[in-house]
Amino acid sequence: MSTAEITARCKSLYDDLDFTSARAWKNADPERKVIGYMPVYVPREIIHAAGMLPLGILGGGDQMEVIHGDAYYQSYICRIPRSTIELGLTKKLDFVDGMLFPSICDVIRNLSGMWQLMFPDSYVRYFDVPQNYDDNIGGKYYIEELRELLSGLEKLGGKPITDAALRESIAVYNENRRLINAVYDFRAEQPSKAPSVEVYLLMRAGMVLPVEEHNELLNDYLAAAAVEERPVRDNCRIVINGAFCEQPPLNLIRSIEMAGCYIVDDDYMLINRWLLDEVSVEGDPLARLADAFLHFSADSAAKYCDRAQDVGQYLLSTVKKTGAEGVIFTAPSFCDPALLERPMLADRMDEHNVPHISFKYAENSGQMQPIREQAGTFADSIKLWS
Amino acid sequence: MNTNSQTEVIKDSSMLLQKTMIAENYDELTNTEETGKKISATFVPGNLNELVMCFDMLNNLPEINAINNGMRKKSGAMVMQAEKQGHSEDVCTYVKADIGSMSRGNLAPNGKPMPSPDLLLLSYTGCFTFMKWFELLRHEYGCETAMLHVPYEGDGVVTQNMRDYVVKQLKEVVIPALEKVSGVKFDIDRLRENLRNSARAEDDFVWVLESAKNKPSPIDAYFGGVYYIGPIFTAFRGTDKAVEYYQLLRKEIEQRITEGKGPITPEGDMQDERYRLVVEGPPNWTNFREFWKMFYEDGAVVVASTYTKVGGVYDLGFRHDPDNPIETLADYCLGCYTNRNLSQRVDMLENYVNDYQADGLLINSIKSCNSFSAGQLLMMQEVEKRTGKPGAFIETDLVDPRYFSAANVKNRLESYFQMIEQKRQGIRSAA
């Protein structure tokens, strides 16, 4: 398959707010179940080991008109919960058997309670993660939380989830992470060969496809992109930070690149890259998942940074590793975690003379001209003076 | 009610005592250079005052400082100062008032500079913003930080795992950090004694809150409630002073009931109770008196509120337990109002409307506070559906005066009172 064919397939998955492929997966076997999850991280390995399909719900994007969802939220709350409610009320998620709401912010946390009230027949879990990273404290707590999640899914699925199944799922997701990192590395090395919109759509496909199918797609893309000749632009290299929950419209990603910025790293769909290393398939699988979460996971504003000197270091190391020349802080409007953390990250970038700019968006932002101008000026300033 | 124009605010003796207590506490906080006492900064929900006192440390609460600055009309400039420094206009104004205050000399209400904290005791209870707030403060102060992560009651229950996690953090993270910073060894018997005092004060506090079941209500459980929660939510829970304060307050309210009086307002006793309301959400602080007046001048009294539960849900039965000193601190943190899921919050509101014979639920939705605000429109619908009583929704902010529109709030309140009247007429016609 060519990159164009792969991208076209991913785009059709992205555009499909009826989740036709996930419905088809479920309809193929009456015993199958689908578990929706919101950003930023849930252990998909456990859902997979239960024989269920983890389905990433990232709002309604810029193609869905939000009518009912707006009735549930004040104007000062971000858009992703209102479009998610819209998806629920318009029955686009009526095939989903359960929803997981990870610990990311108060809005998503409260959305879990709203879901419980609005869809009382659905399995709903607020998935809390430890903000204490000591194995003996946060680790023990987290293992028990994982066990509770596992037990809830066992009950929902009507069958036990074995350690062997968990280990197999961990291995499949290890492969997924390896391939995803390979795509990111490839783009960082040759950004002209992997346009950010393509990479974005490819990663987004992983939210709705079974992981095995996504792995094939990633392999195909790597093979196709490597041999495809594309024009090399005189763009600067930037890292995107702050877009880990509500997603920007595709046009925004495209606009940044068209304005002269190659995106060499980003935090879109961080779940794909949350665990930084391979998870061991030896021993207690839940303990191994906990270990990976506590000690080898990505940084994001949704986490507590327990040492002052570590604040911003993950971003800084990404900048260095990818050879980025600047950072674009781009967060959704009213996103507490990203916007609260931004001044600290900006200070860290200043300490190391990493240029940065910031702007906000919503998943349905339509006017790209100001963003293009801002990103273009940023690119020019890097090219001329950095 | 005394309708004469007054410049002097009328206060009960408990209010005056509280004012003195808070002033003395600020004097203590700003005098640490002389006394050598150490300061722990922490938050109202999950406030571990009984524990902090075991280490001879003082408790400084950034939220309370922001409220103070809001009520003294100083917070607006502080918020804008923080925004000039790069903090987003979208985020919590308590945080920005705190950061902005630092840039303006960080003065306490007594006009003296507030010393930097020796310890940031981050009790992450029911509010995500707390976590980043303390990271921002650590960024500014560079001092020791101890994190107490309190899991959220997502399923409406506290599991043994959640409780064990909090207890373990208290024992292995929080207490060692307090010992290290203060140089004082932890004494569990001292903690028990403080907890005993807490429970005594909590009994009287709950009695006061529940006095609003009387008709007329002798208290306003929202605007007046702000005064009543002061000592128990801040630096006094576990002290003899707090016990004395709540005894005095209780006597005052008993007297009001005996005399058939309504609540105290800044303009004197409220005479005619026309509407009994339950209020969800924190108040606006920048225009507090103006806001309150919109209620009492129309005879509206708040008989129960959820804001008075952010620092502990004592009216549902929780008491600090000296026999289980560490576990009780964990239970306290886990049970604070904003750490409860939406179903629990709806149940509480429904019960308040019924138990306090309220005319309906009013939500004051706060722009700054997603912990409270996200989901409130659904909560209102649920409570209306379950109680058959009308709900209303107003929007203000905590300490950003730009988000208080007096005309809009007043219009909505007047419409709401009319709605209640119409509902009553409908019931009378049907009967």
What does this structure look like?
The complex is a heterodimer of chains A (386) and B (431). Chain A is α/β, with parallel strands linked by helices and 386 residues long. Chain A has a domain at 19-164: Rossmann fold, CATH 3.40.50. Chain A is built from 14 helices and 8 strands. Chain A has helices at 3-15, 20-27, 44-49, 80-89, 106-118, 135-157, 163-189, 196-208, 211-227, 250-258, 285-295, 313-322, 336-351, 369-385; strands at residues 34-37, 53-56, 98-102, 123-127, 236-241, 261-265, 326-332, 356-361. A 4-stranded parallel β-sheet of chain A has the order 2-1-3-4, sandwiched between helices. In chain A, strands 6-5-7-8 form a 4-stranded parallel β-sheet. In chain A, α3 (44-49) links the parallel β1 (34-37) and β2. In chain A, α1 packs across α8 (196-208) and α7 packs parallel to α9. Chain A starts with a helix and ends with a helix. With 431 residues, chain B is an alpha/beta fold. Chain B has one domain: 3-Layer(aba) Sandwich (Rossmann fold). Chain B is built from 17 helices and 10 strands. Chain B has helices spanning 13-29, 32-35, 49-53, 62-71, 75-84, 93-103, 128-141, 160-182, 188-210, 223-233, 240-258, 288-296, 325-335, 342-355, 370-373, 376-387, 406-430, and strands at 39-41, 58-60, 119-124, 144-149, 264-265, 268-269, 275-280, 300-305, 360-366, 391-396. In chain B, the strands form 3 sheets. Chain B has a 4-stranded parallel β-sheet, with helices on both faces. In chain B, β5 and β6 form a beta hairpin. In chain B, α14 crosses α16. Chain B is globular, with a radius of gyration of 21 Å. At the A-B interface, α5, β4, α6 and α13 of A face α7, β4, α8, α14 and α15 of B.
